[in-house]
Structure formats: structure tokens, C-alpha cells
Amino acid sequence: MFNKFNNDKCNLLNVYFWAISYLKPYKLKLSLVIVCGLVITGSQLIMPKIIQYFIDEFLTQPYTHEFIWLMLFIVILVVLIITFSAIRNIVQRSLQEKASRDMQFSIYSHLRKLGFAYFEKHPVGENLALMNTEVASLQNLYRQLLPWMINNFIFSIISITLMVSISWKLSLIIVPSLLLYYIFGPYLERKASQYGKKMGDERVRFNQKVYESITSIHDIRANAAESWDLANIKNRHKQLNKMMIKTYWFAFWRGTNRRLSYYIGGIAIIFIGSHLTLNSDMSTGAFVAFLLYYFQTMHILTSVVTSITEQRVLMDQAEKLYQFIKISPEVQEEEHTIARNKVQGNIIFEDVSFHYVDGPNVLNKFNLSIQAGQKVALVGASGNGKSTILKLLGRFYDPTNGRILLDHQPIQQLSFKDLRESLGFVFQETYLFGASVQDNILFGKPGASKDEVITAAKAAFAHDFITNLPQGYDTLLGERGVKLSGGQKQRISIARMFIKNPPIILLDEATASLDTISEKEVQAALQRLMQDRTTITVAHRLSTIQDYDNIALIENGKVLQSGSYDELMEQKGAFYHLSLGQKQEGA
């Protein structure tokens, strides 16, 4: 158990050092914040000494030149406090926002590097919660907890030193006051912070449920499940409210315990200090100054404990981000890659085997050779690895055995940028951004001109329906392109490929979800897109691939049959029976 405690403590320290490492590029700004804090703290702590001097020297005397100089000194201190507070506020704001930005961007950049393997295991709601909730919580470390703790720690040291210089006897009262606070304080601080963390977790779950409810609104309405969905949302909100009540309950007692501890100490100081003052062992001004120091210091000291406890619990929460940032991408770019100026489109799969994590082999020594400019179709029953082949070619995953060559070069030796710029994917489900039609086409080539956009749209047979939209190419499509039909979405996707102009086209059942009319329109656009390009198509309808150069029937992760459509039909093998089955279904 002791070793576990030490390991947990060490791990939390690692998390803490990782979190504050984002302040490293801004050391000068952090130093300036601390210096400003010292000046402000020093100016504030001189005030009780001035009050002491005023009471002891001027309260019973007429105004003198010394009094005027004292007032002038107070004005100077106030100006110093205001000036350095303004400087600290500006610099600290810049520091915390830049550190928060760097941390958030590093999380976002890492999220982009993890690739398909990560996103297929972790839902969108989980990643949104990680970005919105966990990152926002950790940003509080830069914005409040760390700067506030540094300033208050400095304040406490200087204040205690001044209290001891006034009366070491009265200063001893701090010890039992802090001990009184420590009887329940750390427990209440820990409980309040723990329930605060649980409240944050429940808020994440509630937000996930709201996200699911919004994204599934069509299915919910279609199945008249509004009451069921609302009941689930209410249940999640009930759990969130429960954690909120417990958090605020312990937060109330945390504050009550803090005030109780230093009020009892304050009563003791008033009782003993009055006795010392009456016996002339302490001046009235010194007693008042000490009392001011005491209440300030006790409030700050207990607040420092609160800050440390909150940071301790915050590190438990930040550990999720720390573990996330330590995840290594399953597919990594090699340190030294070979630059390719032009890709011809020759592709070879050599004894390629692959399986997903903890799953059986999807591909078993898969072999296929594709010449530049050929049109090749992959057909077969679901689950035999057709879409996986396209993922391996795009290096969304790496083969467990074997290799893939592009123009006789292993694709691992190419940079992600060079490899993926040479590939043009058209998936069954096209993602359209909530932007204009033109911006969605420009996704294929961000720097293209308006003329290039129109040319690409015409090539994809999309220009006519685009010009009939309310604002033409400037029409906003809404989230995921809800204003367009399935066929129109696919033609926008094909227009992206025309403007990108890759030498290799990969079609993953691009027309499987379309009706007959839309399929014909999209097929016409695809035929134009495939001209003079290497094309690999995962096909569902065999009628769409009759003119292909080669058709590979995949079964159990291997090529069972290959050849042209006519050759395979003449063989009257597995492909022939598959084709007959589809014709009977169509009939």
C-alpha cells in the first residue's frame, strides 16, 4: 500500500510538472508577475505599519509636517498598488491565456495524430468532453490557482515576519488557530474538491447525453421516443444535481470551518493583546496593526491550503489528459522519408496480413498488383477486408505482415502528406462542412480559384444543381450538408477530387446508399473522374463495374478469383454465382 501511495504521488507530480511545463516559454512574463506581486504585497503589508505609526504618533497631536509626509507616502503606495496591479493583470492575463492556448492546441494536435485506430475506439462525445471539460478545468490552473497561490505564499511569509517583529508572543496564537483549522479543514477541503470532480464528471456525462439526443433527433422523432429520451436526460441531470448539492454542502462547511478557526484565534488575540496594551507591554498602534496582519494572514494561509487541495484534485482530473497525451499513434511517420515529385499509380500488395486489435485476421497473405491507370474493383461479402485494403493503402493502419508498394516504393518510406495527397477518397458517407458550397469544394484544394471550383463542379455534373441553389456557390449547406440530397452530396465530394486531381482514386461503396436515379448521376461523374487515373473501387452492385480492367473477389482475406467481368462470368465460379444472386434480388 505504501508503494502504491508513493507511485500515485509520483504520478501526480509528473502530471503537475507536465501541466506547468506550458509556462516554460513564458518565464520572463511569469517572473514579471511574481515581481509585481512582491511590490503589491509589500505595499499592502506596509499599510498596517503606517496605521500603527499613525495611532502611536499622530492621533493625540495636531497635524505636523511628518503627518503630511505620511499622507503623501500613503498616496504613493496606493499609486504603486494600482500601477503594478494593472501591469500584473495585463501580463498575467497574457501569460495564462497563452499557456492555456498552447496546452489546448497540443491536445488538439495530438488528437489529429492518433488517426483512425483511435477514433474507431473512442466516440465523438468522449473526445468533445475531453476537449471542452478536462481542458477547461486544467486551464484554471494557469488562470487562477497557480498565480494566486504564488502571490499568497509570498504574502504569508512577509506577513508572518512582520507579526513576529511586532510581538512574538501574540504570533504564537497562529499555531493553535491553524491546528484548529487542520482538525476538519483538510478533510472538508478534500471532500469539497472530490465532489467537485464528481460533479465535473457528471456534467461530462450530461453533455454527452445532450449531444446524443441532438444528433439522433431524427430517429427519436421517427420512433416517437421523445418521452424516453427526455426521461434519460432528466435522469442524467438528476445525478448532476445530486453531485452539485453535495459539492456546495461541503464547500459551505469548508468556509465555515475556516472562518471559525481564525475568529477563535482573533478573540484570543483581542483578549491577550488588550491585556498587553493595558500593561504597556504593547502600544495601541502595534496591537491594531497586529490584529490586521493576523486576519489577513489567517485568511491567506487557509486559502493556500484550499488552493493546494484543489490543485491536488485537479491533477486527478488532469491525469486523463496526461494519459491521453502519452498515447502513441499506432501508425507513425518515419523520421526520414523519401520525397516523390510525381506518383504514377502502380500499386502492389505483397503477402499483406492484417488484424484489428484483439481480433482475427481480416487479410491473410493478400496479394494484388495494379498497374497505373487501371480500374480495379474489390467485391465479396461483408467482413472480408475490402474497405480495410483501402485503409491500409492510406496508412490509416499498417499491415501486421507483408508490405504495400506505391511505384515500387514501400509506402512507409513516404511522408503522410505525399502519400495522402496522391490519393483521393470518395466514401459511402460524404462529410460536408457547415460552410458554403464553394468552401466545401475548396476542401480538396484550399488555394484554388473560383474558376477552378466551377470547372471541378461541371466535371462532377454538379454545376447545374449548384446554380439553382438560393445563393449558388455561396449557399450555406448547414451541418453535414443537410440541405442536399445523397446524390448531390456525392457529386460535391467528386468535385473535391477533380479539384484535388490525385493520380489514384479510392471509392468505398460510393453509390451503395443512393437510389437508382441518383446512382446514375453519380456514376456518370465517377466515370469522368476515373479517366487516366488508377482506381480501386469497393463495389456492392456488380452492374457498376462491368467495364473495369480487373475485378478481385475477396474471400477470407485473400483473392479467390480475379479477372475482367466477362472472364469471371465465363469461369462460372464464385463470382458468377454472386452475380446471379444479385440479378435474382433485383428481379
Automatic annotation (TrEMBL):
A UniProt-annotated Pfam family: ABC_membrane
Transmembrane segments: 30-55, 67-91, 145-164, 170-188, 260-278, 284-305
Subcellular location: Cell membrane
UniProt topology in membrane: Multi-pass membrane protein
Classification via SMART domains: AAA
Gene3D superfamilies linked to this entry: ABC transporter type 1, transmembrane domain, P-loop containing nucleotide triphosphate hydrolases
Keywords, alphabetical: ATP-binding, Hydrolase, Membrane, Nucleotide-binding, Transmembrane, Transmembrane helix
Signal peptide stretch: none
GO MF annotation terms: ABC-type oligopeptide transporter activity; ATP binding; ATP hydrolysis activity
Residue ranges annotated for the ABC transporter domain, each copy included: 347-581
UniProt-listed Enzyme Commission number(s): 3.6.3.-
InterPro entries given in the database record: AAA+_ATPase, ABC1_TM_dom, ABC1_TM_sf, ABC_transporter-like_ATP-bd, ABC_transporter-like_CS, P-loop_NTPase, Type_1_exporter
Domain of life: Bacteria
Domain ABC transmembrane type-1: 32-310
A Gene Ontology term for the protein's cellular component: plasma membrane
Similarity annotation: Belongs to the ABC transporter superfamily.
Entry protein name: ABC transporter-like protein
Organism from which the protein derives: Lederbergia lenta (Bacillus lentus)
